[in-house]
């Protein structure tokens, strides 16, 4: 015949629970006791006011509502390894007034002591069906109870999954919330790499605009300008695409600096008056005084050198001494190195 293991409220426990439910109060269960049943497995009796043979009584570790059955409560107690030397066959729950409110039998198990060479921590659980689990509560002193490893692991896991943690501050450690904001002054938020990159990129652009404004032409050593730059080749550009460049060049056309030198604008100085900004200027010839020549006739072929163009006179050798002066013109350019002029467009 199969042995039945049951847990029931005692008559006193049922009466107290009914009273708590009616008054809207709670029955405070504080302790659990275990006993050996006097050597045999007892059958719980609601008339009982004590265990058959109590061996140990101590505070409960936990009292919770069964997650799968809201009408069932689960009481748990930990017996440390240094207590034992007896069998466990019966379990009782007591309230704060030491009244036995529930009783149960359980599979027989021996709880050894360390002195016996086999110590273990024993977990005792009682599942009890009540009419209202809201009317039952646990009243314990957390300083004198033990917790199972599973209980601790579960509680830590629950805590880790919650967001009920202190916020970090400039003085204390804690949780922080990530933020992509780049204009916030909140010192409890942590900037993401995206926010930092956005700020760095913005600073780099601002420095570039400050140190090298849009529209400035620069010599570049390759035939392809870098990103954000255009060649100064006289091309037109789109105002919508390059709004800042349009402020520098309202005609929406870039200057053509191919093969050209840049000259400082006169700006009222009087050296090169009558010029407008970005206006072009043709080259001029340079007048050179060549001095006097005596006793020559015919064309002086010695002057036919590279760079001499269109002489305005010729001297002929004569029988009489003659003196003649005149001017001629020579095209002049300085030594130079060719660069590709580019303009910052964005």
TrEMBL record:
Subcellular location: Virion
Residue ranges annotated for the Phage tail fibre protein N-terminal domain, each copy included: 1-149
A single GO BP: symbiont entry into host cell
Main location: virion
Domain of life: Bacteria
Domain Phage tail collar, first and last residues per copy: 215-262
Keywords carried by this UniProt record: Host-virus interaction
Stored SUPFAM superfamilies: Receptor-binding domain of short tail fibre protein gp12
InterPro entries per record: Phage_lambda_Stf-r2 (IPR005068), Phage_tail_collar_dom (IPR011083), Phage_tail_collar_dom_sf (IPR037053), Phage_Tail_Fiber_Structural (IPR051934), Phage_tail_fibre_N (IPR022225)
Name of protein: Phage Tail Collar Domain
Source organism: Serratia rubidaea
Taxonomic lineage from the root: Bacteria, Pseudomonadati, Pseudomonadota, Gammaproteobacteria, Enterobacterales
């Amino acid at each position: 015949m199969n042995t039945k293991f049951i847990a029931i409220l005692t008559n006193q426990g049922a009466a107290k629970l009914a009273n708590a439910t009616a008054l809207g109060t709670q029955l405070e269960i504080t302790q659990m006791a275990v006993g050996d049943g006097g050597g045999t497995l007892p059958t719980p009796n609601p008339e009982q006011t004590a265990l058959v043979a109590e061996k140990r009584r101590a505070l409960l570790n936990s009292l919770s509502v069964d997650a799968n059955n809201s009408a069932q409560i689960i009481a748990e107690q930990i017996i440390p390894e240094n207590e034992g030397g007896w069998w466990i066959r019966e379990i009782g729950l007591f309230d704060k007034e030491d009244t036995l409110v529930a009783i149960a039998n359980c599979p027989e198990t021996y709880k050894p002591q360390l002195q016996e060479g086999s110590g273990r921590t024993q977990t005792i659980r009682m599942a009890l069906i009540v009419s209202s689990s809201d009317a039952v509560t646990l009243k314990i002193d957390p300083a004198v109870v033990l917790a199972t490893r599973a209980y601790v692991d579960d509680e830590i896991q629950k805590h880790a999954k919650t967001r009920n943690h202190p916020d970090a501050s400039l003085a204390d450690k804690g949780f922080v919330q990530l933020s992509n904001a780049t204009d916030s002054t909140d010192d409890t938020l942590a900037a993401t790499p995206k926010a930092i990159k956005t700020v760095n990129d913005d600073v780099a652009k601002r420095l570039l605009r400050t140190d090298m404004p849009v529209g400035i032409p620069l010599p570049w050593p390759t035939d392809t300008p870098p990103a954000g730059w255009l060649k100064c080749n006289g091309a037109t550009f789109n105002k919508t695409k390059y709004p800042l460049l349009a402020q520098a060049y309202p005609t929406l056309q870039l200057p053509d600096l191919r093969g050209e030198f840049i000259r400082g604008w006169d700006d009222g100085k009087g050296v090169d008056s009558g010029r407008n900004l970005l206006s072009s200027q043709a080259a001029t010839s340079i007048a050179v005084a060549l001095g006097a020549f005596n006793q020559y006739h015919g064309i002086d072929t010695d002057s036919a050198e590279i760079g001499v163009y269109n002489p305005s006179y010729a001297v002929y050798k004569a029988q009489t001494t003659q003196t003649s002066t005149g001017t001629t013109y020579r095209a002049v350019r300085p030594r130079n190195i060719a660069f590709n002029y580019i303009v910052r467009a964005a």
